[in-house]
Write a structure and sequence with these properties.
Layout (H helix, E strand, L loop, with lengths): L22 H9 L7 E4 L2 E4 L5 H20 L4 E5 L3 E2 L10 E5 L5 E3 L5 E3 L3 E6 L3 H4 L2 H8 L4 E6 L4 E8 L2 E4 L7 E3 L7 E3 H5 L3 H12 L2 H15 L1
Parallel strand pairs: 4-7, 8-9
Antiparallel strand pairs: 1-2, 3-5, 5-8, 6-7, 9-10, 10-11, 12-13
Amino acid sequence: MSQTILKPQKTIPILENGDRLTRFEFEERYEQMPHIKKAELIEGIVYIGSPVRFNQHGKPHALIMTWLGIYWSATPGVTVGDNCTVRLDADNEPQPDALLRITDNGKSIISKDDYVEGAPELIVEISASTASIDLHDKLKVYRRNQVQEYLVWRIYDGEFDWFRLREGKYIQLQPNEKGIICSESFPGLWLDIAALLTGDLAQVSAILQEGLNSSEHKNFVKKLTTKSDS
């Protein structure tokens, strides 16, 4: 009687901070650890998120998501993502706090297994303990992968950086005379920096509404809807 020889099952190591992995290895280990809510692969190195605090992350994150959500609701053809894993390249799979992408004919797609692949047009990071990563390694990765606008809220410093990709380099956009920064990738996405930093959501929303009422935003919506119909 012949005997069936069972092959030993492959043991997948646990995901740990500081691991050096390929994107395939990272995903394989991450999927085996559903209790981990945030892990990223940046330049081939694993970073596992710490528990998040209310004032240092939860509240600022909610302000950003509300701001982007209002824009999304008024702009057919764009989509907002909250803590989505993004497949950028062989060594980088970040999980940004927020992203805004053009739904059709943009620089990113949604894969068959429901991940973002490619560079969203705009990414936001809430940066407290992660500032050294967000402003160095991540900035380089996002620039190299052609993320058009990269926003970093530096909580401890009380500062907000808005980087715009031009000729392969990130330049920092400055507020106008009214203290407002206007997105170049998403017309009508206006932000009152001072109001955001003080948590004045009503003022943030009011300035955004001015942007949504602008002719630039109306033309952008027309352009997006025309593309989706063609």
